Amino acid sequence: MIVRFARPGLAVLALLGLLAGMLLSIVPAARSDAASCAPAWSSGETYVGGDTASKDGTQYRANWWTRGDDPVTNNGVTGTGQPWTSIGACGAATPAPTPTSAPTASPTPTGACAVAAWSAGSTYVAGNTATQGGILYRANWWSRGDDPATHNGVSGTGQPWTAQGPCGTPSASPTPTATPTAPPSPTPTSTPSPTPTPTGTPGVAPDFVFSPYKDVTVGMNWNTSAMGTAVGGSSQPLVGASGLLGSDATDLDAVTLAFATGTCGSENWGGVAAQAFADANIPALAAAGIDYVVSTGGAAGAFHCSSAAGMTSFIERYASDHLIGVDFDIESGQSASGIRDLVAAAAGVQDSYPQLRFSFTLATLAASDGSYGGLNATGATTVRAIQASNLRNYTVNLMVMDYGAAGPGMCVVSGGICDMGASAIQAATNLQHSFGVPTDKIELTPMIGMNDVRDEIFTLADVQTVAAYAQSQGLAGIHFWSLDRDVPCSPPTPWVSITCNSVASGTSSLSYTNGFLDAIG
User: Fold this and answer.
1) What is the rounded CA–CA span in Å between residue 504 and residue 235?
2) Domain limits for position 492
């Protein structure tokens, strides 16, 4: 749950995002007397605290950063942990039709439950129990505001609660006489398509990976589709003759390529066809001895893959002995079922690529108020899908950036602003506490320099803080957004930029890259 705009470098400048946010913030709040509606909620739109949207004749106000969280099913009063709050009717909503059949009444408990009743304002962690409607429920992980009566299921369903059975002594409901129905006709079983046999041999991911994100569209030679950069002070290829990597400027030997979007097998890279991008860049990276992670999705796009066969085809396109990972940056445009399909596809190919790391990059808060607030609904769905699968070689990569208005419910506050180093540590702590993810499955990705939230500055001192924590706790890796921003702006700019770090002073070309390399050792 981070306040951020479309990932820099994918055709949407941060300046435009900031102006759009300012315009949204002045939309007047809806009146409870069916005032005119705010613009309709959109699953692909980003909303920040105070923004309003409408759906089905009801006006909602965002409590913090949210994208893809339907306000109809994700709203509640303050303290419930929901991203939206209903602020009344608007327009001329069409009333919902009255159901024609009467619902079956639940049994009424006649005995007292020994466990306290569920409370929307209480925080529950794995193993805690609560009662609701005469049923005892056990929490599967951190939960607040999720009514167990409507958010429960067996292991693997991704629900925060599991029903344990009746509590007290409920009265029995009469057993209705069932009307027999004819057995359904058998459905023919289709023959599944065989999974392609892998031919490429990816490399072996080390226990710790440091690989800054490289926005492939920044500095690209659009005639050849080869990646380039100006982070060294002038335009040059990323690798190869006169390339940045392999030069005296840095010892960096791994990058994360961002982003492939679309559907596996027909993906593209910022509009460049997948095979054209692969042909222009993968052999050059391998020849230069540069390890690489192929990243998908991002803030401005989504990646879909629903089968092991599709995932195999995707991996094979970029395979070499320097491919060490596939990253799924899940921020927008993916449903819960789509996320589960993506995890299942990764799990379905892991035996073919046993050394390949699958990372899931997710937005987060870094609440320091004791609530352990972190992942939004999309992130929680992703982690639950991973934990319900048999995927082994995975990591959860937290985007420790863009927390929003400074406050203990959002980040670790120091001097009235978010302390970016301490907040990164808090975000990892919250993930461990809420979801039980071990430290060797956690990675951190800050946004160097100025964040989209302009008073959040990730400094060179924060580099030392995060690197020391990652090493002492045995984290799986550190990355940052993005390599092309690792240079001062000339002239200085008060706005976030896709090609420089927007820090007023104290940095030079590749300060963050080389700072992390020195700190990691």
Assistant:
1) 23
2) 209-520
Residue 216 lies in a domain: yes
Tell me which H or E stretch contains 87.
Answer: strand 84-90
Of the pLDDT bands very low, low, confident and very high (cuts 50, 70, 90), residue 437 is very high
What's the burial of 171, exposed, middle or buried (CB within 10 Å: 0-12/13-18/19+)?
Answer: exposed
Number of domains forming the structure of the chain: 2
The pair of structure tokens assigned to 116 is: 């306290």
State pLDDT tens for residues 26-75. Answer: 333 333 334 588 899 888 777 766 678 899 989 888 766 677 888 998 88
**Does residue 438 lie within any of the structural domains?**
yes
Pick the last residue of a domain from 69, 89, 109.
Answer: 89
Pairing of strands 161-166, 135-139: antiparallel
- Whether residue 25 is contained in a domain is answered as yes
Residues 467 and 448: their CA atoms lie apart, in Å, by 13
The helix or strand, by DSSP H or E, that contains position 244, with its residue range, turns out to be none
CA 29 to CA 25: how far, in whole Å? 10
pLDDT, tens digit, for every residue of 44-56? 777 766 678 899 9
Whether 189 has a pLDDT exceeding 80, the answer reads: no
Is 1 within the bounds of a domain? Answer: no
